Structures are given as structure tokens and as C-alpha cells.
Amino acid sequence: MAKEKSAIFIIFGGSGDLAHRKLYPALYRLYKAGVLKDHFAVIGTARRPWSDDYFRETVVTSLENLDDDKQKMEEFAKHFFYQSHNVNDSKHYIALKELAAKLDDQFSAGHNRVYYMAIAPRFFGTVAEHINSEGLKTKNGFNRLVIEKPFGRDLASASELNNDLSKAFPEEEIYRIDHYLGKKMIQEIPNIRLKNPKFDKALSGKYVSNIQVTLGESLGVEDRGGYYETSGVLRDMVQNHIMQIIGSIAMDKPDEMTAESIHKVKTDLFSSLKVLDPEEVNRAFVRGQYDTDRLGKQTAYRDEENVDDNSNIETYAAGKIEFDDERWANVPFYVRSGKRMPDKSSRIDIVFNDQASKLGINPNTTVSLLIEPENGHSILVNGIDYQDSNQDLIKFPEDKTYFDDAREAYESLIIDILSGDRIHFTLWDELQSTWKYIDVIREQWDLETPKFPNYLSGTMGPEAADTLLERDGNSWVWDD
Ligand code: NAD
């Protein structure tokens, strides 16, 4: 049983989608696990004038899919309080401060505060500034600021946001969420490498032909068309999730399994990203937007709600990323992410080259680490399952049920925040390098009008994504 934690959570945007779909269920699971027990309270804030009782009802409703232990849910909801709040109104922060202090006494929460930004990104800076200027931070406990993505929309806006935040919170109190870093398989990669020295040794340009990262979704934009129009898959998935996954698999071995050591090797890796010249963009990256499906039944992106009829926003991107790094010289990292692909599938495929036989790895071996919908790994030789005869290459997880009771990403990240463990959060230095890389692509794409839509819903994306690999004599491991 995990150790009990104490804190007052202040959730800015407590009536919103993220809070209801992700945060309250995660907090409830932690309550059931005893991580949150007697010494915590949650203040939800939003503009609407809600009562505590009404807020608690909405919290309980958000848990209804989890189980039917109504009594437990009601007990949990007693820890929730509502404070109507407008981000620009200083008086409201004073009211929040007083309520937090009162609840801290009532629940003996150790003067610990978690300030969670479940609110539109344009408010992040203002809220952080007011938390500081209105004296919400406590002296004798921790004060941790949790920031949701997106962290800026390019390097300039991310730097501006970071400047605003750093006036109010030092870097070590800022927890930038990338929920992929909360997923069990991603968290396990450093351990997999540590426990499988042969596999770890093979992770280098000497033995690897290419590495592929796919974050495929079968759904379209659903009801988030408005948000998507301001983002596109390059900003929404590649700059953050895909880069962080590459970081986990390609970083050098850290000296220790501490946040400091891990972030150091990750930062070094990202600073060696080979930033493209504008004229290289269209050779290295492909973009796409979904049309209807073969039967004309699914809604094309341009016909989705809150989407411009002539939108040039990409719902698919594939690219070849390279590093100026001794370990990874000349190894292409092929990445792709798209909506309306045939299945949901998040995975890393590591394709070994002929030299890998020097380590006793069969020619044409591919190791796939499966992140979603299922956790696990597979070893294929010439496309055929070779798990048993490659036992010494990668033995993990030994226990097949290892991932079964894995904590959901937000649950695991909230424990880290409460424990002050920053391993699974993104640091500003990492973001600077990844934005710098992405900005060139975005800027080039914005200069040209793409021929959209260019792939049917339910397919693997535009053909050019296959050509991208074929030009190098390679092909995607995950294919329909
Ligand atoms: P939402 O629109 O559902 O909720 C926004 C919340 O902010 C509401 O509670 C609203 O009342 C409050 N709010 C709006 N204006 C306000 C003001 N002036 N003063 C005080 N409160 C105000 O948004 P969401 O989908 O929950 O997203 C919240 C944040 O989380 C965003 O930064 C988003 O990018 C990020 N995020 C959301 C998801 C998701 O699945 N919803 C996933 C990843 C990141």
C-alpha cells in the first residue's frame, strides 16, 4: 500500500473537461488506494457560482464509470470544495488563500499546496503571477505548480510563458505534464534497458537500422475541432509526446536513476536534434488531413464541427528525425501520428541491422515496445514471432501480469507530484530544443497550401508517408 500523502489541491478550471474526465477519477483511485486519505482537500475553481454540494455532485458523476461503491464516492466528495473565481480578479485569490488555509487546518494537510492549471493556456501566466503576488504560497510546506499541455505554440510563445511562470515559481516547483510520461511502458523503458544489458548495448547506431515511433488513433477530432484548429498534430503530438518517447529510448545511460541524471541525458539528446533547413522540410516530413472513409460514411475533417471548410490543419504527420550524436549518427527515427488510422496503436519499433549479429541478435530482428492499447513487447525475426529463441535479448516483463494493475497515467503523475519526483515531467531545456526543431517545419508548412484532404479515414495516412521510408530502403513495421 502506497504511503498516505497530504496536500490541498487547487484546481483552476475545476468545472472543465480535463478535471472531470481525468483528474477526479485519478484522485478517486488514489483515495481508494490510500494515497489520499484523511489529509487532503480539493478546491475546484471556475467562473460559475456553484455551491459545494453541487460541485460534489458533479465530482461523483464523473466517477460513475469507475465502480458502484456510492458510499466511498460520497466520502471522497466530502473533501471537495468550490470557489467561484475569475482569473484576473485579485480578490478571488485572497478568498482562495483563506479557504486553503482553513482547509489545511481542518484536514491537517501540512501546508502543502498543488496548484493545478486545468484551464486554457492563455491564463497560465496570469494565474501563476496572482498565486505569487497574492501570497497563496505557504512557507512551511511544498508549493507545486502543475501545467497542462500545450506549453506554448512555438518557441517564442513557450519562452514567454516560461518567463511568466518563472517569475512566480522556480523551475523545480514546476511540473509540466506530458501524460505519455505517465504511461507504465514509457516509465519502464529506463528499467528495461537497465535490466537487459544486451538490449541496452544494442541501442546504438552500430546495431540499429532505424527506430519508429507511432502514435496512431482511430478516432477523429470528435468534439475538439475548435481546439484542433489551433493546433494540428505536429504541435499536439510530435513536439511533446513523440519527442519524449524518443528521449526515453534514445537517451544515454543516466549515471543514476534520479530525475537530475535522467533529465541531463535527455536534455543532451534533444540538444543534438538535427534541426532541418527550410528546404529539407518537405523531404523529411509529410502532412495529411483525413477525408471521409471508403464508403463515404465518416465525417471528413473539414466537415467536423468548429472546423473551417477550407482548413489546412494537419491531422497526420510523419517524419524522419536525426541526431547529431555519436551514438545515433545516421540512424533515422521515423515518427508518425495520425487521426482516423485503422486502429489505436502507440508503439516503438526498433529495427536492428546486420551488425547486431555480433551481439548474437538474429539478422532482421525487430523489437517492438507496445504502449497502447496494450502494454508489452514483441520480438520479430523476418516478421515472425521469435520471442522464445531470443530470450536473452530482452526479458521483460518477466511477470505477464506486471502491467495489469498499472496505475493510469494521471494517477501515477499525481503521486509523483505529491512525492516531489520530477522524473516524468518535461523540463524547460528539453522543451526549448524540441520547439526549435518543430518551429522550422511549422513555418515552412505555413508558407505552402497543402493538397488536403489527402487520406481516407481508416487508412494508414498519405502514401508519401510510405515513400519517406522507401527512399531509405526501409518500411513501416506497423502496417494495416
Ligand atoms: P474546458 O474548457 O473544459 O475547461 C476550462 C475551465 O476553465 C472551466 O472550468 C472554465 O469554467 C474555466 N475558466 C474559463 N475561463 C475562466 C476564467 N476567465 N476564470 C476562471 N476560470 C475560467 O477545458 P479542458 O478541456 O478541461 O482543458 C483545460 C486545460 O487542460 C487546457 O490547458 C487544455 O489544453 C489542457 N488539456 C486538456 C485535455 C483534455 O482532455 N480535456 C488534455 C490535455 C490537456
UniProtKB/TrEMBL annotation:
The active site is at residue 241. Residues 192-476 form the Glucose-6-phosphate dehydrogenase C-terminal domain. It is an enzyme of class 1 (oxidoreductase). One of its GO terms (biological process) is glucose metabolic process. Keywords: Carbohydrate metabolism, Glucose metabolism, NADP, Oxidoreductase. Catalyzes the oxidation of glucose 6-phosphate to 6-phosphogluconolactone. This is Glucose-6-phosphate 1-dehydrogenase. The gene is zwf.
